[in-house]
From TrEMBL:
This is long-chain-fatty-acid--CoA ligase. The keyword Cell cycle does not apply. It holds the Pfam family AMP-binding_C. Its EC number is 6.2.1.3. One of its GO terms (molecular function) is long-chain fatty acid transmembrane transporter activity. It comes from the Eukaryota. The lineage of its organism: Eukaryota, Metazoa, Chordata, Craniata, Vertebrata.
Length: 620
């Protein structure tokens, strides 16, 4: 017995050494896997109770444990956990008793980044209503479409968005949608102000009976897709999905003592669910900013003693492109959580602003699978550990970019790609990893489902993203399926070309896309470029750089200079309209350039060059 115990003790002592030999990340893999498992189990256990314990209950528990702790910092305003609880109860009473809302109703919120966003969210949750988060930048047709998709009969907004409301108010009234301002007075006829009633309402707790029928499958929120192409879609966020999404900050190591800086729009899942929701989950403090500001970013971090920052899309590039300051490394930020950070920006950010731990993650608002890069490996969007591989519910499958469809074998099933090869990410749809789809349009939900992937009859969520898993278990984002294009028999990943061209001295931002050319198969590369201030376009330098670092088929043949590159509210570059406009100098007012191989530079685009391309007299 003694010998056995000694042997077991020796084995335990050897485990770390063996783990390091097998994988240098084994200990992190183990710790994170156990942490995720514990959190998911806790989430499921709480939601299975009767009544279930949702994020609202997590918030109320925090109110009980530290009522006077600051939850939200906004400018000079400070809102404690108790403040938000009381104000949300007041809002819940007015919305139920005054407006007439009942459990199960959908309510659209059309708000900027303001504190009412949080107490309206918690207030609606207290009476069992679903909150639809409308993009505050949409107008007219998109606004009406978004309201129709979620089935809301009530719209809450503020006079800040008065012009957008008045533009569609007759249509809203015709559809029976009531509009209310969260203000003391209303500057718009037909829109009632609610703030006075809310201020006068009781702060007493709201009876649980008002939300008695809420379950884990109940829709908690509608979060709209960014709308890079087409009209926004309302992704269904159930209480189960919400519970999982708000654990991201916890997985990344955020504690109750942290102060999280969120300058991103609250209508998007990154800020609302991961940022603000994550604060509720761990009991931390959130600094909310009306909108992202490059010049104020680090000043805000110092002012509020921020320890965790959120980023998305090109935010980090904007910070790196800002003029250097002597005190830009003087801050308390230890962690950055977000997605969309490119390799060259990642390196520059760390070099310039100090040893900040970056926790990059991958996931779609409506998706059923995701990854977290908890090791800090530069460029990776996540890690698939040896433990996760055992329970993996995702696949990377071979994809035909030209035909825009997965490649299938003789059985009609998809083909897995080996490590090191790019494939389409698909997530298996199961009871524990469901795809809830979009509100208001079953067809759009159905289009995101791939069938017969591994075996006949299975169903997978189509992410629309191309990723690559390396031999160490790190996973890398490559491109969107619609962004990747095929030219001269080769697949061109726009993100790779953008990363390469961004290194050119005079380029501030670049957006690469493929455009069709009459008489040619596939699409040819084109780049929309924003120049750095007081710098000019140099066609020869761009040609030389592209030739040095890109294969010939990937070099953009056309360049379009723009004063500003259009992006969504979450800083995703818009390509759809640029593709439609193509490279016709008669239609485009921006400066256009064409890659002239004979002159070894990009030359101004002319009607003569355009005609020669259409007549196939110029070789592309």
């Amino acid at each position: 017995m003694l010998a056995l115990c000694t042997a077991l003790a020796g084995l335990l002592l050897l485990l770390p050494l063996l783990g390091n030999l097998l994988s240098p990340y084994w200990w992190q893999d183990l710790v994170v896997s156990l942490s995720v498992t514990h959190r998911v189990y806790r989430c499921l256990r709480r939601l299975q109770r009767c009544p279930p314990l949702t994020l609202l209950d997590t918030f109320l528990e925090k109110v009980q444990s530290h009522p006077e702790k600051a939850l939200l910092l906004f400018g000079e305003q400070v809102y404690t956990y108790r403040d938000i609880d009381r104000r949300s109860s007041q809002a819940a009473r007015v919305l139920r008793d005054g407006v007439g809302l009942r459990e199960g109703d959908s309510v659209a919120v059309f708000l900027l980044n303001v504190p009412p966003y949080l107490w309206v969210w918690m207030g609606l949750a207290k009476i069992g209503c679903t909150m639809a988060c409308l993009n505050s930048n949409i107008r007219a047709k998109s606004l009406l479409h978004s309201l129709g998709a979620c089935g809301a009969t009530v719209l809450l907004t503020t006079p800040d968005l008065k012009a957008a409301i008045e533009d569609v108010l007759p249509s809203l009234q015709q559809k029976g949608i009531r509009v209310f301002y969260l203000s003391a007075e209303s500057p718009t006829s037909g829109v009632e102000p609610l703030q006075g009633q809310i201020d006068a309402a009781s702060e007493e707790p709201i009876p649980v009976a008002f939300r008695a029928n809420v379950t884990s499958k109940t829709t908690a929120l509608y979060i709209y897709t960014s709308g890079t192409t087409g009209l926004p879609k309302a992704a269904i966020i159930t209480h189960l999905k919400l519970c999982r999404m708000v654990t991201m900050l916890y997985i990344c190591g955020v504690k109750a003592e942290d102060v999280i800086y969120t300058p991103l729009p609250l209508y998007h899942s990154a800020a609302l669910l991961i940022g603000l929701g994550g604060c509720l989950e761990v009991g931390a403090t959130c600094v909310l900013r009306p909108k992202f500001s490059v010049s104020q970013f680090w000043d805000d971090c110092r002012r509020y003693h921020v320890s965790v920052i959120q980023y998305v899309g090109e935010v980090m590039r904007y910070l790196c492109n800002a003029p250097k300051r002597e005190n830009e490394r003087e801050h308390q930020v230890r962690l950055a959580v977000g997605n969309g950070l490119r390799v060259e920006v990642w390196k520059e950010f760390l070099q310039r602003f100090g040893p900040i731990r970056i926790c990059e993650f991958y996931g779609a608002t409506e998706g059923n699978t995701g990854f977290v890069n908890y090791t800090g490996k530069i460029g990776a969007v996540g890690r698939v550990s040896f433990i996760q591989k055992m329970f993996a519910s995702f696949e990377l499958i071979r994809y035909n970019v030209e035909r825009d469809e997965p490649v299938r074998d003789e059985r009609g099933c998809c083909i897995r790609v080996p490590p090191g090869e790019v494939g389409l990410l698909v997530g298996k749809i199961t009871r524990s990893s469901p795809f809830n789809g979009y509100a208001g349009d079953r067809q759009k939900s159905e289009k995101k489902i791939l069938r017969d992937v591994v075996k006949k009859g299975d169903r997978y969520f189509n992410s629309g993203d191309l990723l690559m898993l390396d031999h160490e278990g790190f996973i890398y984002f490559q491109d969107r399926v619609g962004d990747t294009f095929r030219w001269k028999g080769e697949n061109v990943a726009t993100t790779e070309v953008e990363t390469t061209l961004a290194a050119v001295q005079f380029i501030q931002e670049v957006n690469v896309y493929g455009v069709p050319v009459p008489g040619h198969e596939g699409k040819i590369g084109m780049a929309a470029i924003r120049l750095k201030e007081e710098m000019v376009f140099d066609g020869e330098k761009l040609y030389t750089h592209a030739k040095d670092f890109l294969p010939n088929y990937a070099i953009p043949r056309f360049v379009r200079l723009q004063d500003a590159l259009e992006v969504t509210g979450t800083f995703k570059q818009c390509k759809g309209q640029l593709v439609k406009e193509g490279f016709n100098p008669a239609l485009i007012k921006d400066p256009l350039f064409f890659l002239d191989e004979s002159e070894k530079r990009f030359v101004p685009m002319s009607p003569q060059i355009y005609s020669s391309i259409l007549d196939m007299k110029l070789k592309l």
